[in-house]
């Protein structure tokens, strides 16, 4: 028995660590790169580009974005160009689209130069636009009290004859009147609140018509809780009891389907594949930025607005 214990101790002492620390000079040298995020469309009123700097894999980590504020950002076609100016309050570069028109079917180049690094990318705005779409809103009892639900169902027909990529986005407005307190004066008076909410933010982001030419696409149903109608009692500044009708309204329901370019599609799909799933291998995020990271892409959007 003693012999076995001594033998085990000898074997354990002879084992070397499987984990070794590498010297910093043996690690690969990775320089920070410019990271670009810019989308253009004939329908957007202004151009916007976010320029940040990547963080090397080895070294101290900072989880806040490192904005590049001194870059020259140029958007150009074959004959003209516009410079995007940095907006310090919004931390992005911008220019009004009245000075430079985006046309479906044309190719555009984005160039970013911060004095140390130059990156560029190209994209072609999709010529196609969806012509047939449908938006339905169905209301139903929520199952208790007077509460109700509203379900938005959106569909569109694929543009036939060529490959297409799509993305869907939407928004709606909820309104209601409630008492509002003004601390400066002590008054309590009715106030009309307006809330604008996005749709489809957490659903499948993009679609394609590979082997599906001409079919009808259906976006996931988006269900919301409708504000119930009620009479609200409150005391005004003088202590007098008052009542009001909150008069809830659902309005300006707008859904857009965007014909997106292939860069847009590949970038969004690569983001979907990087969802921290522990059972899949990590994949690289797609980029079309030469010499950098990020995305420069385009889309051609049409939409439908309903006031139920």
Automatic annotation (TrEMBL):
InterPro entries: DUF4249. It comes from the Bacteria. Pfam families: DUF4249. This is DUF4249 domain-containing protein. It comes from Dyadobacter chenwenxiniae.
